């Protein structure tokens, strides 16, 4: 039998969450920044292409 102070089996099976390290935060921020810049460049290129086609 288990004691009332033991945690339920579902809590035992779960891995403890590790704290987010600075390196992980920086990696995530860099990835988000690069995605944002890529989207901006793509939008700029689409605008430039539209303007170029209007000039012709």
Strand and helix layout:
Layout: H1 9-13, H2 22-55
Task: State the gist of this model.
This protein has a domain at 24-56.
Largest sheet: none
Query: Spans with pLDDT under 50 lasting ≥5 residues?
Result: none
Mean pLDDT: 83
Mass-distribution shape: rod-shaped
What does this structure look like?
This protein is mainly alpha-helical and 56 residues long. The chain has a domain at 24-56. It contains two helices and no strands. The chain has helices spanning 9-13, 22-55. The longest helix is centred in the last third of the chain and has 34 residues, at 22-55. The N and C termini lie far apart (83 Å). The model has no long low-confidence stretch (mean pLDDT 83).
List keywords for this structure.
mainly alpha; single chain; rod-shaped; 56 residues
